[in-house]
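Figure 3 (text version): structure tokens given as input.
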């Protein structure tokens, strides 16, 4: 497996390589993720071993690799949703102070194939429900602005079961961003989008990074790999 600069990667192990980062003004309370020698195995099957790197504010960290290489597994470990077999994952605020697990979940937004939206509700009803679950308080304006930001009409009363896959994907992104997290995690986010939707997604991801957010993106789409300022390449 070659990294972005043409160097070969060892089987199951890798480190991030760097590109010029997206510049942004210093902002307080930004979040970075640092992971060191992370490994995962299930019984006798090794998914990956000794993966190290970092995701910094204002950057897009791309996790690439063929199907079955462990991209989603690594994302789940970095999110704190899955325990690594070995290694450490640290969450740090912009002043290098550690973030505990309880506070971490409020910093995180996730878009993944397994993430559910409620098909019997319309888009606004979905976001209102999520706002209540998140304890966001009065949220009508927040929900409307969230839908507009992803290109959905907040006044449209169509139930989600009538949405195209691309519209449903936009709703998932709106849901993930509703509480204004500092870290956005995207697992194969362009898989249900048409070319215009992918163009929109690229612009949205780049804008989030430029605003100082930290973005983690798992993909095996070559065009999406180009969005990254850093990359972890997993072997199959």
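Below: residues designed for each position.
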């Amino acid at each position: 497996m070659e990294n972005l600069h043409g160097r070969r990667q060892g089987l199951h192990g890798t480190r991030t390589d760097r590109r010029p980062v997206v510049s942004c003004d210093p902002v307080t309370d930004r979040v970075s993720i640092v992971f060191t020698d992370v490994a995962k195995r299930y019984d006798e099957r090794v998914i990956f071993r000794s993966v190290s790197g970092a995701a910094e504010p204002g950057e897009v960290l791309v996790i690439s690799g063929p199907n079955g290489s462990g991209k989603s597994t690594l994302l789940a470990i970095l999110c704190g949703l899955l325990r690594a077999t070995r290694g450490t994952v640290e969450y740090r605020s912009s002043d290098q102070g550690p973030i505990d697990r309880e506070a971490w979940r409020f910093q995180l937004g996730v878009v993944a194939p397994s993430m559910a939206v409620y098909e019997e509700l319309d888009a606004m009803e979905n976001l209102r429900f999520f706002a209540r679950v998140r304890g966001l308080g009065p949220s009508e304006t927040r929900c409307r602005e969230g839908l507009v930001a992803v290109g959905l009409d907040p006044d449209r009363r169509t139930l989600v079961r009538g949405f195209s896959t691309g519209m449903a994907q936009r709703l998932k992104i709106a849901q993930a961003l509703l509480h204004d997290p500092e870290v956005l995690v995207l697992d194969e986010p362009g898989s249900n989008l048409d070319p215009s939707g992918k163009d929109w997604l690229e612009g949205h991801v780049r804008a989030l990074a430029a605003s100082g957010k930290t973005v983690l993106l798992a993909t095996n789409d070559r065009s999406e790999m180009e969005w990254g300022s850093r990359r972890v390449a997993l072997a199959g």
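Helices lie at 71-79, 101-104, 123-134, 140-149, 165-177, 195-210, 222-225.
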